[in-house]
Structure prediction request, 162 residues.
Amino acid sequence: MFTCKRLLPVILLTFLIFECNRCILIAGNSLRVRVQYHPGEDFLRLPEFFTGKEFTGDKVIVRSKEQREGIYFYVPLNKSNSSLSKANSIKLDLIDSTSPFPRSFELSVPEEVSNKKTLLIGVTGEDWKEKSMDLVAWKIVLMDKEKKPVFSSQSFLWDHKK
Prediction:
């Protein structure tokens, strides 16, 4: 019985520390960029069959080439990060397994960002050959009209590319 009285406060204290650390990590890293490969058919939606135009739903999709198949970077567009709605252009640098040197992509952000939830930045077509490439490191910078950064994110390995 004596050990049970001590065990309960230890468990509660451990749980409290875990929850506090989790809240700090979430608050400090509230914008987390996710990376995922998509085949072209992942973007087919029923409305496209009727209108002939790609249906993007609550996403803004920007691609390096017109083809849909490729690797995509998901940037959340929340109301809490309203500065992202001022983004006018994107600079994406990445290193893949075919070369140790970074490749750069300059992309424009369309006007319709305001009511969307996610920005998808795609490296598609000839720019990304999924069968022969693996992503090693990346860096994304969203800039406003004056080319001032409004958002920046990078992979852990980007700092170690030198």
Residues 1-29 form one domain. The CA atoms of residues 60 and 119 lie 5 Å apart. The helical segments are 2-28, 46-51. The beta strands are 34-38, 59-63, 70-76, 89-96, 103-108, 118-124, 135-143, 149-154.
